Amino acid sequence: MTLTQVRTLGTDRIERNLDLVGKLYQRSIYPSVEAVAHGRRPAAPVVVDLDPTTLCDLACPECISAGVLHKGGLSRDRIVELAHELAGSGVRAVILIGGGEPLMHRSIGDVITVLHQAGVQVGLVTNGTLIGRYLDEIAEMVSWTRVSVDAATMETYDRFRPSRRKTSVFPLILDNMRALAERKRGALGYSFLLMQRRDAAGAVTETNYHEVYAAGRLAKELGCDYFELKAMLDENHFTVNQSPADIALVEEQLARLRELEDGSFHLLGSSNWEAVHHDLDPVQPKEYSTCHVAELRTTVTPNGVYVCPYHRGNEKAKIGDINAMSFAEMWAKADTTVVNPRADCRFHCARHRANLDIAALPRRGRPVELLDDFDPFI
């Protein structure tokens, strides 16, 4: 998300951390960006999205990662070894994500510790059920934690995020978030994905649209630093446009949530919600055939390394296998040009503007003004 893609009414710090174009010009990041702009490969990506496992303890019917779930995970020894490899390669930040639920991997505490001690910043995207198991590591060593909640009440949560357990995990997640909020050194976010279900005639039968305001208010009460709203995507990552009435319902709640913003709590809206809000074409045309950002970020999963999270599980976009070789060996052999954004990435991509900016660098006739480092999660 860039500043033009995100409506943010928080402090300068929050805005800077969301500015994916501005982040390219940080002093320690720019050398890799400049190399990529001129057709050279950096020795390592700046950021790695790491799926420790494909297991998940929820059974969400609309899970966009359903095709890659429950197909194994990195072994306990291999993932710790990989953490050391990433730390030694020059990778600046690692996002523990999925695929599956990252905290289900039994070695995840060791992975966080290895990366943190090596100076690699760690981000975490989680469903929140297992935060308590690794509260010490997350609170002390993780730069930011984003919890996918997508509801404000147990009834709605259980409808869209059913657990594989016999009882609802919604109260547990809230308790975990409260506990983390009390101890965290990094940021804590409450993520809300707008979801609807329709019958054969197209009429809405189930929705969470009505709980946006209540969820945002709950996020602040829990001690979260931000509340993030995202639009529903189809299985191919295209936005799903909504009726004017549904858009108005969400916007009215967002307006009320903005009144809750202060120096410690901020409201974020994703680029895909902006696309839906303004009824933009779900297709985002791209005039370039090479993704420069694929040289700066990569996605490592138990079943392959892929050019980016959008293409997780896509065999065409697979660039290596971390089980067969070291990270350095994999990266040296990786061909990130296997994906052509012009043909293969017609959905709204959060890093589209970053790609445009990198491509324009060689044509600039003025020196680049660099920024002091503030966030490696480009």
From TrEMBL:
**Would the keyword Iron-sulfur turn up in this protein's UniProt record?**
yes
Protein's recorded name:
MoaA/NifB/PqqE/SkfB family radical SAM enzyme
One Pfam family, short name: Radical_SAM
GO terms of molecular function: catalytic activity; iron-sulfur cluster binding; metal ion binding
UniProt xrefs under CDD domains? Radical_SAM (cd01335), SPASM (cd21109)
* Radical SAM core domain location: 38-270
Which UniProt key words apply to this protein? Iron, Iron-sulfur, Metal-binding, S-adenosyl-L-methionine
Cross-referenced PANTHER family: PQQA PEPTIDE CYCLASE, RADICAL SAM DOMAIN PROTEIN
| Organism field | Thermocatellispora tengchongensis
